[in-house]
Task: inverse folding
């Protein structure tokens, strides 16, 4: 167990470093060239760069210091150590990749792809239990005390910066920034939830032993059986629950249609699955 804990801790720091680097790259490659103040300290640094020509890496480092103290007080020591790492990595990456900033860009494409890369980066950082500092730390505080998702909390905090950018740049660029923020929030939740193509299959049947056998033989997945009652008929029937990967679900659909056509089957998307066969290897 101690070895497993050390491995998980090391993996968390890898997530934070890789994610923070992606955040910095997204800023220099997509957001800054398009003048997209897509919220947060990065958005503030974009506005100040336009007004006064200040270096974004320096601005972000200075603003993040007091916000780091707030995160230390509100979120605890472990989070703050990880936040310190993310806080240092983002401006450092921005400084080291200044050569990637290009003149001119496609605003719409920059907002979409910038949002995707930024969302992946922040999602990895959050999965590591850290933050990139700045308003991202404020978003994590909002998540903790308001019980809302990381993506939505980030959306709320970043919205205030976008309003300011409309006065500095233009209303059109502010709208593109909103697109970027929306994409970022969705990608953050996607990365954190590890959303995939897994399906939760619900089967209501009179022949539960036959259906269970089909699942074991053709899909090799576990099955949970629950007794259910029809609200109108008052007839007792078995409700079988099984989680499958998408390819398995497609194959099982063909099998159940041919072998047990009278069964009532529902396929639902499962956003995250923890346990043997999914987050852990099959036995």
Result:
């Amino acid at each position: 167990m101690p070895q497993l804990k050390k491995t998980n801790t090391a993996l968390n720091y890898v997530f934070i470093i890789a994610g923070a680097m992606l955040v910095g790259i997204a800023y220099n490659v997509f957001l800054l060239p398009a003048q997209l103040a897509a919220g947060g300290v990065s958005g503030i640094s974009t506005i100040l760069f336009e007004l006064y020509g200040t270096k974004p890496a320096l601005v972000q480092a200075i603003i993040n210091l007091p916000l780091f103290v707030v995160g230390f007080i509100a979120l605890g020591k472990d989070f703050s150590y990880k936040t310190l790492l993310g806080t240092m990595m983002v401006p450092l990456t921005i400084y080291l990749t200044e050569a990637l900033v290009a003149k001119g860009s496609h605003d719409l494409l920059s907002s979409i792809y910038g949002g995707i890369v930024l969302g992946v980066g922040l999602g990895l950082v959050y999965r590591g239990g850290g933050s990139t500092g700045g308003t991202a730390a404020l978003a994590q505080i909002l998540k903790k005390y308001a019980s809302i998702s990381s993506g939505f909390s980030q959306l709320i905090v970043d919205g205030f910066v976008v309003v300011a950018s409309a006065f500095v740049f233009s209303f059109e660029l502010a709208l593109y920034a909103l697109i970027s923020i929306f994409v970022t929030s969705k990608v953050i939740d996607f990365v954190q939830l590890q959303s995939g193509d897994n399906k939760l299959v619900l089967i209501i049947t009179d022949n539960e032993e036959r259906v269970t056998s089909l699942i074991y033989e053709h899909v090799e997945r576990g099955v949970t059986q629950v007794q259910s009652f029809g609200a109108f008929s008052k007839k007792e029937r078995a409700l079988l629950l099984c989680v499958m990967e998408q390819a398995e679900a497609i194959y099982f659909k063909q099998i159940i249609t041919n072998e047990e056509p009278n069964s009532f089957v529902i396929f639902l998307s499962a956003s995250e699955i923890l346990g043997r066969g999914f987050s852990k290897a099959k036995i």
User: Anything to note?
Assistant: The chain has a mean pLDDT of 84.
